[in-house]
Amino acid sequence: MSTRKTTRPRKRGRPVEFDREAALDAALETFWRRGYGNASLDELTTAMNINRPSLYGAFGNKEQLYAASVDHYVAKIGASYLAPLTEPKLADALNGFFDAMIDGVTGKHGPRGCIVACTMPAEAGVSPLAQAQLAAVLDQIDGAWIARLGSAQAAGEIAKRRDPRALGQLVASGMLALSIRARTGAKKRTLRAIADEIVAAVFAP
Amino acid sequence: MSTRKTTRPRKRGRPVEFDREAALDAALETFWRRGYGNASLDELTTAMNINRPSLYGAFGNKEQLYAASVDHYVAKIGASYLAPLTEPKLADALNGFFDAMIDGVTGKHGPRGCIVACTMPAEAGVSPLAQAQLAAVLDQIDGAWIARLGSAQAAGEIAKRRDPRALGQLVASGMLALSIRARTGAKKRTLRAIADEIVAAVFAP
DNA sequence: CGTATTATGTACCGATTGGTACATTACTGA
DNA sequence: TCAGTAATGTACCAATCGGTACATAATACG
Questions:
Q1: pLDDT for residue A2
Q2: Is the pLDDT of residue A7 over 50?
Q3: Which among A105, A148, A151, B23 has most CB atoms closer than 10 A?
Q4: Distance (Å) from the alpha carbon of A18 to chain B's nearest alpha carbon
Q5: pLDDT of residue A10
Q6: pLDDT class of A9 with cuts at 50, 70, 90
Q7: Is the CB of residue A158 less than 8 Å away from at least one CB of chain B?
Q8: Do residue B183 and residue A119 have CB atoms under 8 angstroms apart?
C-alpha cells in the first residue's frame, strides 16, 4: 500500500466567504484605536465586513476576538520590530529595533501607540485572560532581548559586569514607554532622543 | 469704611452630605482598577456611597469624574512620588523616586500599576480630552525631572555633555514602563533592577 | 438527485449602559 | 415662620450592549 497522508476529509457545508486574515486586520485596527471596551460589536462587524454570527462562529466571542487580535499584532507587527535583532552588530540591532518601533507607534501601520502597551493594561485589571496574555507578551519581548544581549556580551560587545536580564528588560521597557508617548502625539525626534539614551545605557561600561 | 473682604454669600439650600475628597478617592480606586469603560455608574456610585444625581451635581458626568479622578491621583499619589526630587543629592532624588514609585505601583496605595499609564492610553485613542490630559501629565513629570537634572548638571553631578531633557524623559519613561509591568504582577526586585539601569544611565559620563 | 453540514443574513433577545425627572428633605435669609 | 434654594432618594428613560434563534443559501457526500 502506498504511504498516503491521512485523507483529511474535505470541508463540508457552505464555505467561509471572508478572508480570516483580513478580518483579523480590521478587528485589530478597531481594538488598537479604541481599546477593548470602546469597540462595540457593531463597529467590529462593520470594520471586518462580516455579520455577527460569522464573527462568533469564527472567533468565539468578543474577548477571544480581542485576544486573537493581539496575537495577530504580535505575530505581524511586533515581529517586524524584532526583526533587526538578527543584525550581527548589537548597535545595529538596537538602533534598527527602535527605528522600526518608532515608525510603527507614530502611525506607520495603524493607530498611534501599540495595542499591547496602550489597551491591554486597562483590561488586565479586570480580565485574568488579558493579564496573562500581557504578561506573556512582555516575557517574550524581554526574552528576545535578554538572549540577544547575552550573546552580545559573549561576543564582547557589552561589558562583562552588565546584567543582560536587566538590560533586556530596560530595552523592552523603552518600547512600552515610547508607545504611550506616541499615543499623545509625541514626535519621532523626541522618541528617538529617549531611545538614544537607552542604547547608550546598554553600551555603558 | 473698613476694608472688608467682599461678603461671600453663605451657601443656600440643603448642604452636601458627602465628603468630596473621600468620594474622589473611591472613584479613583474604581477607575484605577477597572479602567474607564469597565467602571459603570452603578459601581462608581456604590463605591463612592452617593447616588447618581449627587454624582452628576458634583462632578458633571462620567467623563469629567474620570478626569477629576486622574487629577486627584496626580495631586495626591503622583506628587508623593515626586517628593524625593527635593533631596539635595541627585542620587537620593532618583532612588527615592523609584523606590516610592515601585512601592506605589505594586499596590501600596491601591490597585497595581498607575491610573495614568494603565488606563489613560486606551481612552486617549477615543477622547481628545483624555489625550490632552495624558499629554499634560507627562509634560508635568518630564518637566519636573528636566528641571531637577538641569540643576544637578549645574552642580556638576552629571556630565556637561548630557542632555537633561532627554534624560528627564528617560526617567519619566521608566515610570510608565514599570507601571505597566507592575500591572501584570512583576515583583519589586525586577522593577528595581530596571530602575537601577536608568539611574546608572543618568550618571554615565 | 437527496441529505447532511456549515456559513450567512435578519431580526431579535434580555441586560446593562449613561443620564435625568420628580418629589422630598434640609438648609439660609428675610 | 415662611419663601427660596439646593442636595438627596427613587424610579425611570431611551439607547446600546454582547450574544443568539431561525430561516436561508451554498457546499460535500452518497
A1: 34
A2: no
A3: A105
A4: 28
A5: 65
A6: low
A7: no
A8: no
Global pTM value: 0.93
A131 in contact with chain B, both atoms CB, cutoff 8 A: yes
Confidence tier at A183 by pLDDT (50, 70, 90): very high
Q: Which residues in chain A have their CB less than 8 angstroms from residue B184's CB?
A: 124, 131, 134-135, 138
Q: How many CA atoms lie within 13 A of B175 on its CB side?
A: 27
CA distances from residue A50 to A34, A62, B154 in whole angstroms, order as listed: 19, 14, 62
d(CA B80, CA B73): 10
CB A119 within 8 A of CB A27: no
pLDDT in tens, A29-88: 999 999 999 999 999 999 999 999 999 999 999 999 999 999 999 999 999 999 999 999
The CA distance from B47 to B42, in Å, is: 9
d(CA B39, CA B113): 17
For an interface test with A, the pick among B31, B145, B170 (most A C-beta atoms closer than 10 Å) comes out as B170
Are the beta carbons of B178 and A173 closer than 8 angstroms?
A: yes
- CA of residue B25 to C1' of nucleotide C25, angstroms: 27
Q: How far is A157 from chain B (nearest CA, A)?
A: 17
